[in-house]
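quick one before i forget lol
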Amino acid sequence: MEEQSKLTDEQLAARLRLSENLKRIRASQGLSQEALADRAGLHRTYASQVERKIVNASLDNIVLLARALGVDVSELFANVADDSESTMERIEKKTPSSSIEKKSRRKAT
């Protein structure tokens, strides 16, 4: 598994959006991670890792997850934030400040 500190802001934003939408849609359908994984033909730990933004989910697996939820793939990447906070602001809150500072320093050089 790759270190999240090596990911770009855009990669983190995509994982965050996928994670939040998976959780939201799965919960609205009353499904556990295990039930979702079973429907998708994936291992339950993989579904958990996708929701926790640990793995880089392949397009094939994202399609399987969308099909298991009965939604279009685009819904898993939809911007449905229920507040005015941007995806990047949410990432910054969830990312230790030291890694944000390292990224800022890398970009400045």
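fyi Confidence is low (pLDDT under 50) at residues 97-107.
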